[in-house]
Design goal:
- Strands 3-2-1-4-8-5-9-7-6 form a nine-stranded mixed β-sheet, sandwiched between helices. The chain has a three-stranded parallel β-sheet with strand order 11-10-12, with no helix packed on it.
- Helix 4 packs antiparallel against helix 8.
- It has three domains: 239 residues, Spore Coat Polysaccharide Biosynthesis Protein SpsA, Chain A (Alpha-Beta Complex); 82 residues, no CATH class; 62 residues, no CATH class.
- The radius of gyration is 22 Å and the shape is globular.
- 35% of the residues lie in helices and 15% in strands.
- It is of the alpha/beta class.
């Protein structure tokens, strides 16, 4: 399998203010503090470096070009035989150029990393290998096959759950299950879309995306942007039932849709203190929080970003990402705990992080008609404050969003302009 990484690396968010709740969360705990995107990228690539790729293509562009030398030095250390190009793809022509390089690497499967912040989080490669074996089997009968390697929360954890699917229909519609076992799900997609930027694809699928239709000068930042001009109806997708990779910034953007704070159920990721120095120190099972350590206590009710008495992680030691292992200098396990019970509790917490969509019946009704509207009102108040503080953002997004959102923004436009004049 080929690793194909193709990204523009900047500290500016893809969508302004999308993760404003996350920004507040990251201010409340030192270990969860937002790292710069270059460090997130190197953290992600360090996780990828543990896999035996048949070839590696790294296309990149840094907003801060003074860091190019550092970036390439670290990439060469992680992937000595990588092809490194200091120009990311942002057009159909450039993706076609990348395809020709991938084709020369002579492998049918490509791990396309169209994001710089989806590191491996799995404790080993067993789930990845099971998905890859199934995809190869399916490729004998189907033209286009892919593996959904990240966003478990919106993949196998959500798609079969019809109750929550009513709250997030665009993530579950137009799919038909064709296979399931203990490890994975397989769905045929009857819609025209897929989150291609987090998929392992057979190389023929990439050729279809890049060559099947001339889309002219359209800007293509990642493969998702080939839609809607290029469609792939009937594609087969394999969904793992346990995480392979995950999004560094988590799922807080779903909270207003489902009526609860997703961050406290499925927390965002962080870079452990000492990771790059290979000096991660773990304190497991202790009641008192230790600064400078990675605190793990499955018995704690709250995370460190919720309370000073909380913990950084609530999972068992066996659930930790495998690529941390060579970077851990010390594990201090409290002598006061029943380790077996605490590990079992951690396994249960891990399962809940993977599959948080458990509500049915009245709970779904409550989420849809009571809790979610309250979340949306809370978001509306917060967004109004942003418009008053940043009128330019209101101007830039005036015609985006749903019809009610557009009407609301146009209705308050005058108020924002008056406020802006008063502040001048």
């Amino acid at each position: 399998m080929i690793l194909y990484f193709d990204n523009y690396i900047t500290n500016a968010p893809l969508f302004k203010y999308l993760y404003d709740d996350l920004s507040e969360l990251r201010k409340r705990a030192k270990i969860y503090a937002a790292p710069n995107k270059l460090d997130v990228t190197l953290y992600t690539l360090a996780s990828y470096a543990q896999y035996p790729w048949s070839g590696v293509l790294i296309k990149y562009e840094l907003e801060n070009k003074s860091q190019n030398r550092r970036f390439e030095r670290e990439v060469k250390r992680l992937f000595p035989k990588a092809v490194i190009i200091a120009e990311r793809s942002d057009s159909q022509k450039k993706y076609q150029e990348a395809y020709r390089m991938l084709e020369k690497m002579d492998d049918d499967w490509v791990f396309y990393a169209g994001n710089n912040d989806h590191p491996f989080v799995c404790p080993d490669f067993s789930m990845l290998e099971k998905c890859l074996a199934k995809a190869k089997e399916l490729k004998r009968k189907h033209k286009y096959v892919s593996i959904w390697y990240s966003h478990l929360l919106e993949g196998a954890a959500l798609i079969p759950r019809k109750e929550y699917g009513k709250l997030l229909p665009e993530l579950v519609e137009h799919r038909e299950k064709t296979f399931e076992d203990d490890d994975l799900l397989v769905y045929r997609n009857y819609g025209s879309a897929g989150l291609y930027a987090i998929e392992i694809a057979n190389i023929g699928f990439l050729k279809h995306l890049f060559y099947s239709k001339d889309i002219g000068d359209k800007r293509v930042r990642r493969t998702d942007d080939f839609s809607p001009e290029i469609t792939v109806k009937g594609k087969i997708t394999v969904y793992p039932k346990l995480p392979i990779c995950e999004h560094f910034d988590g799922y807080g953007n779903l909270s207003t849709r489902v009526g609860f704070d997703v961050n406290i159920v499925v927390p965002p990721l962080f870079i452990p203190t000492g990771f790059f120095e290979k000096d991660i120190k773990i304190a497991f099972g202790y009641e008192k929080y230790r600064e400078g350590w990675l605190n793990i206590n499955p018995a704690k009710k709250k995370y460190s970003f919720e309370s000073k008495e909380g913990t950084d992680m609530k999972v068992g030691l066996k659930n930790l990402p495998f690529f941390w292992k060579g970077r851990i200098s010390k594990v201090d396990i409290s002598p006061k705990i029943d380790r077996g019970k605490l590990e079992a509790l951690g396994n249960g917490n891990y399962a809940n992080i993977c599959y948080p969509w458990t509500a049915k019946g009245l709970e779904i009704y409550h989420a849809k008609y009571v809790a979610a509207p309250v979340w949306r009102m809370r978001k509306l108040v917060g967004r109004t404050r942003i418009y008053l503080k940043d009128p330019q953002f209101l101007d830039e997004t005036l015609n985006t969003g749903s019809f009610p959102q557009r009407m609301y923004k146009k209705a308050i436009l005058g108020i924002v302009k008056v406020s802006k004049r008063k502040n001048i």
